[in-house]
Write a structure and sequence with these properties.
Layout lengths: L2 H4 L1 H12 L4 H22 L11
Helix pairs in contact: 2-3
Length: about 55
């Protein structure tokens, strides 16, 4: 997932999960779910991406 590499919010979330002992694949799936819920909220509300609203 590219977001786990280049998006600072998702990357911080991914690193926090790995530091908590989650397997890398489990952390990646959690990031995908988080990204999907954020995108769904953006489409639903019609608001653009704002990293301060989606802090990890």
């Amino acid at each position: 997932l590219t977001a786990a590499r280049y998006n600072p919010v998702i990357r911080a979330f991914y690193e926090r999960l790995k530091a908590a002992g989650k397997l890398p694949k489990v952390a990646l799936v959690a990031c995908m779910r988080k990204l999907l819920t954020m995108l769904n909220a953006m489409v639903r509300t019609g608001k653009p991406w704002d990293a301060s609203l989606h802090s990890a």
